[in-house]
Amino acid sequence: MNGSDREFYESLEDCWERLESTEKPIYIYGMGNGSEKLLGIFKRMGISCKGIFASDDFVRGQSFCGYKVQKFSDVMQDPEDKLVVLGFGSSLEEVMRRIESIEDRYELIIPEISVTDKGYFCKQRFLDLYSKAQRTYSLLEDDFSRRTFKCITAFKITGNGKYLRECFCDEQEAQSLLGLGSEEMYFDLGAYRGDTIESFISHTGGKYKSITGVEPNKRNYKKCVQNTEKYPGITLYNAAAWNERTHLLFSPGGGRQAKISEKGDAVETLSLDSISQDGCTYVKYDVEGADYEALAGSIKTIRRFSPKICAALYHKPYDYFLLPLMINKINSDYKFYLRQSRYYPCWETNLYCIPR
Known about the structure:
Layout: H1 3-11, H2 15-21, E1 26-29, H3 33-45, E2 51-54, E3 63-64, E4 67-71, H4 72-77, E5 83-86, H5 93-103, E6 107-109, H6 123-128, H7 130-139, H8 143-158, H9 161-165, H10 171-175, E7 185-189, H11 195-203, E8 210-214, H12 218-228, E9 234-237, E10 240-241, E11 246-251, E12 259-260, E13 265-270, H13 272-275, E14 282-285, H14 291-296, H15 299-305, E15 308-312, H16 319-330, E16 334-340, E17 349-355
Parallel strand pairs: 1-2, 1-5, 2-4, 5-6, 7-8, 7-14, 8-9, 10-13, 14-15
Antiparallel strand pairs: 3-4, 11-12, 11-13, 15-17, 16-17
Helix pairs in contact: 7-16
């Protein structure tokens, strides 16, 4: 990125400034954790919300945070001009089309909010960290990665979905960057219910040396065991990836959004270094905000074995350029590729690290 790139980012309207300045009534689409976070940010910034609406199938006359939840169809038929803010994430085609249909009628903002805490992406904060963003950009190996970086940044600043759509990538195509073979020793940090283990097995044609999965959520762990028990050579840990062996409190959350928290159930933690002494050729990090700690617990492994890496870069707003710098500091002998799967907002942003 050069001076003209910075000028471009500076020229973009920050989505939060847009929300503060608009005279249109603001509605939030969705009810859940994301919408609660939005309302909290609105309160701190003095932004007024006129209403909450949800997809028709979910509306049963309920209220949400003091608002009576309206139906999507009723809001879309309302002739009043308005600004709609997306309060949840989805990769489902039907839901994504519904989100895009809002753009045809009203102004839509898809803000970038932290998946794991109360943080959010701010244009000024990005500009303050611009030198670090430049360093990550310089590490990217191909034109598509660099284009993805610019599109993601423009999207995070503006909340405009058009920028994100310009860099959507097929997940299978992205996975092909890894060049997985039959001798892989795969470590899945954040194995969830075994879906990524099964995807790995599919990519290798069922041939691999070993698979090790780490999943802290007890319910997900049990499902992971059930879903993968038919495959040989798999070791599973009901634990959280961290920088050391200890016990921490863990919030089960909903779906994949379970994470280390200030309250919850005690969970064992372990480091990749403690379970990979026999070798590691590929590791996947999707650890819901514990990314820096999990990487800190992987330093010996990454330096000794130079495994292929797939790292989720979307749990916190600036991870997409801060986490690559951490990996590069651990081991500078990697080629970096950035890919964005189809998702609103820009979740499923992944970094693929291939040893040179």
